[in-house]
Amino acid sequence: MTTMRNLIESFYLKYIIDKGEYYGFLGVASTSISVLIAFLLYTSVNPTFSVVSNCVSDLGSGPNMSNIVHNLGATVSGFCLVSFHLSYVKYLQYKKANTYFIKITKLTSVISAIGLIVLGIIPFERESLIFFLGHGYAAATHYVAGSFAFIFYGFFEILILKFSKILGIISFLTGIIYGILWGGYLIDFIFMIPQVEVNYTLQWISLAGILLWSLLHSIFLFKTKMQKKDTFK
After folding, report:
1. Would the pTM count as exceeding 0.85?
2. Domain span including residue 191
3. Percent helix, strand and coil across the chain, each to the nearest 5
């Protein structure tokens, strides 16, 4: 048992924690490429598709194989985000971030990434109640947990560790956008006030936000290791 535990720990440190920035880059590439290709495939059949009249998840149930491309990209990106979050949280722990809050950040960030994985597995099908609800719950998990995770990241980056105001601002803004998005859907659900176009546009903005967040934080982690300022195995 001890040997197996050591092997698992060694694998975790070598291929997850130590490679976090590469998972971040891969996640950004996977999302960007899959969304672009899915968008082109969708619009080649239905040119009325737009960021105002359609949500991001519509690509996951679109025609002309756009659904397969988009859902595969979302699933891969979700797994990459899990690995990146684990690596970045480890870095924050190395920098002496508050133990209690860093555990919450780790939990919420991983839950948010798992939500993204499920979004890729369960397509957004309005005609199927099971798929519609399953996708909806996964989206809620991704956005609610993500809003808290990104705000906590910003809190650490600006107020506690003080190593990058730019990263901190990006984290705060991403968390706020996520919060506004799920808050808007909550208002829609409780008060039956449809704000479809606003929510759809916010989805695309949140997508851009998570891509920018992932890219900048991956670059930061990569440069930090290359400059050998920190090691945190």
Report:
1. yes
2. 2-223
3. 80, 0, 20
Please give the structure tokens belonging to residue 188: 């829609």
Residue 53 resides in a domain: yes
Residue 209 domain-assigned?
yes
Length of the chain: 233
Burial 116-128 (b: 16+ CB within 10 A, else e): bbbbbebbbbeee
Print pLDDT tens along the chain (233 aa): 667 776 777 777 777 888 999 999 999 999 999 999 999 999 999 999 988 889 899 999 999 999 999 999 999 999 999 999 999 999 988 887 778 889 999 999 999 999 999 999 998 887 888 988 899 899 999 999 999 999 999 998 988 777 778 899 999 999 999 999 988 888 777 776 666 566 788 999 999 999 999 999 999 999 988 886 555 55
- The answer to whether position 192 is within a domain reads yes
- Residue 141's φ and ψ, nearest 5 degrees, are -60, -45
Residue 23 lies in a domain: yes
Neighbours of 69 (CB within 10 A): 23
39: tokens are 């968008």
Instruction: Say how many Å lie between the first and final Cα of the chain, rounded.
Output: 22
Domain total for the chain?
Answer: 1
